[in-house]
Amino acid sequence: MPGDSKRAPRDCRVGRRLAGIALVPPSGPKNERRVGSRLPCCHDHSMTISKNLFQTLAGLAQRDLQPELMDQPNLDPVEHALALRGLARVNWFSRSDAIFWPALRAFSLEQKGTPLRVLDVACGGGDVTCALAKRARRAGLDVKIAGCDLSETALSIARKQAASSGEAIEFFQHDVLSEPLPARFDAVICSLFLHHLDEVEAVTVLRSMSQGSRRAVLVNDLVRSRCGYLLAMVGTRLLSRSRIVHIDGPLSVAGAFTPPEALQLCEQAGLNGATVSRHWPQRFLMKWSRS
User: Fold this and answer.
1) Is-contact 147 129, C-beta < 8 A?
2) Which of 4, 48, 147, 262 pairs as cysteine with 122 (C-beta 3.0–4.6 A)?
3) Average pLDDT in the 273-285 region?
């Protein structure tokens, strides 16, 4: 669920369903109540929600890519900003930057006196980008990090965050689906972006990331699983007030790849020798290094 508004909506009804749970009122006249009744319509509605949730969890064996509110080109900037703040809290809780850091630290130490140049693709509000820059500064490592995104709203928020945290980070607008990445980086990374893409787009992005990187590609993303889906339903409500985050969170898990599927994408993109490791909470890190 990054800030990258990359495609036109597939379905104008996106706001009417919450991750497989039909948001429809119970049958019967509105606010109908009878003395002594047990409100069967509310009970039936709860049963419908439970049944739909069970069906959704059972269906996670197959990927179900649905349009997300964050992907809509006409997304209200205020709602967009609120969603990005919510996603920043989700990333903080799930320690997204910590998933990347061991590999980036090792790459930096291997540079032997030259700076490690890193590009964060589809950086959204820049919270992970800034967190990585902060880790590098505290570790005394020479890491030059940049971020790109399609959304000017997201980039504006990212620039403000970098300025407020005192990090010197370059943010620039870029459409990774249609334009090649600038080939001036040692490592190209992306966080929580791959699950927004169909298989053809995912292969295109992975190939572009490898072509734009001198050394390595790192991808941190969601694992499609029942546990991950339930965590998304609960966690997004605890960590954010954004309705976009509440709706898109479970949808993101349903549209995510499993680790074996991610490796298949790497093979199709020519990233031979890529590895995938599992991380808390229900994340994977795909790592590919140029031989």
Assistant:
1) yes
2) 4
3) 96
pLDDT of res. 126: 96
Q: Which of 120, 122, 20, 10 is nearest to 73 (CA)?
A: 10
Here the tokens at position 141 are 């490592």
**Torsion angle of C-alpha atoms 220, 283, 285, 212, degrees rounded to 10:** -20
Given a cut of 80, whether residue 46 has pLDDT beyond it is: no
Closest-CA residue to 153 (of 34, 3, 268, 42): 3
Residue range 64-84, pLDDT digits in tens:
999 999 888 888 999 999 999
What pTM, to 2 d.p., does this model score? 0.81
**Region 201-219: what's the mean pLDDT?**
97
Q: What is the architecture, at CATH level 2, of domain 69-289?
A: 3-Layer(aba) Sandwich (3.40)
Closest CA to 74 of 148, 2, 7: 7
Q: CA 20, CA 55: separation in Å to the nearest integer?
A: 8
Closest CA to 126 of 282, 2, 217, 280: 2
Q: Where are the domains of the chain?
A: 69-289
More confident residue, 36 or 261: 261
- How far is the C-alpha of 204 from the C-alpha of 85, rounded, in Å? 29
Measured distance CA(118)–CA(243) in Å, rounded: 32
Name the nearest CA neighbour of 166 among 130, 115, 202.
130
Determine which helix (DSSP H) or strand (DSSP E) holds 179, and give its type and residue range.
none
